[in-house]
Design a protein that fits this description.
The protein is built from 2 helices and 33 strands. It is mostly beta strands. The protein has 2 domains: 321 residues, 5 Propeller (Tachylectin-2, Chain A), CATH 2.115.10; 137 residues, Jelly Rolls. The strands form 7 sheets. It has a 6-stranded antiparallel sheet with strand order 23-33-24-29-30-31, with no helix packed on it. The radius of gyration is 23 Å and the shape is globular.
Amino acid sequence: MKYLIVTMLSLLLLLSAKSDKKQYDESYRPQYHFSPEKNWMFQSNGFLYSEGEYHLFYHNISIGNKRFKDELGHAVSKDLLHWVHQPFALTLEDRAADPDAAQPTSGSAVIDSMNVAGFQQNGKKTMLIFYSDSKGDQNLAYSVDKGATWKRYPNNPILKNSGGESHDPKVFYHTPSGKWIMALYRNQGEGADKAGISFYNSEDMLQWKFSSHLEGIGESPDLFEIASEVPGSAKKWVAISGEGEYKIGNFDGLTFNPETGLQKLDLGKNFFAAQSLYNAPQNKSVLIAWMRGGEYTDMPFNGQMSFPTELSLRTTAKGLVLCRKPIETISSIYKDEIKKKDKNFIPGLKGSLVGGIKGDAIFIRATFKPGTSDSFGFIVRSGKKSEGTDIHYDTAKKTLEVNGIKMIVEPLDGKIELEILLDRASIEIFANHGEAGLSTCFAPVQGEEELLLYTQGGELYLESLEAYNLKSVWANK
């Protein structure tokens, strides 16, 4: 499978052996993004809300006793910010008790509130995890105690592979049809001539029937309904791949009918396997992704999730697009702040408007009118030993660039609006109210924490700027 890469083994061994007395305050430990307590983290394997709690499942991989261990991590939160690690959901010990049990590789999780699968005990809602195995079969595990303990379904697999690659089942309930839907990546077999998403439906989540295949959507797919920002507008459905490529259209429980071409949600290299929140409060659309490929040198862990974002649809000059913004509860971890507005900024005044803020966990919200500026931006994590990382906007080319990654950001009404999330090992940028996004991991020089604002070649008008130091969500660890 795609995760079991032999060249990773030596690094995994190193990670599993590391320890740090200052746990959760290690030099590259994200301070407000989710990260595993230890070992190597891969993509989300389930993201849901139930009875006042958010649950996140993910792959936790380590090496112990000369064997490769791929187990299913589990964490719980009340606010999507402060997470509490739980006992792993599926472990090698489970397989020791049942040697035929499949090793989980990827999947999703739901709440069986209507008890259609029949696992419920004492009136408690059942939590279900759907996961692929190395054969490409789809399997099921369930919990009757809010995810504290798990049992594998004795009649697994619930869906056998009909040929080729088959993995990443995303399961959800489709209210209009009254059916449960599985969106599954496949590249051949029943109904699939080319790679894409196959849709299956079920009444009990145990027996699944093939309905249709959508070509052109990649691995780790998701499918969800979402509202427009225009009140009264009809809701649409979004089919999205792990790479963040998506189409907008309609879904009737059997077939997805695209209304747009393929678009890209995030232009960064460290954004993969995004999952929408199942059973989100107030019917909001919330997304979280694995920030793959980061560097966490000498840390006892490797990997982090993106910051949760709320999604919406907006009609733009390019047509209908999926937009995302950091969840509003980020304000609960604001600490020091500066606010500026209506300022003309000329070359040579580096840092004069943001001198009150520096650090390794910062949120910036700013609106600019480029004016005569040739280019402008922020330099983060600079100091005596490092020039820092440049978040650079080229006015003529209309491109934003960071860590060698570029994305087009067209001015809206002559303005550029940016939201920037800086953490110890990552930068996430949302431009023009979330119409464009870029996620990137980095490894800045430790101790260098200056924040600078600059303009080159001409004057820059700063309509508004807010910058906040952010409190650690691991402060009580």
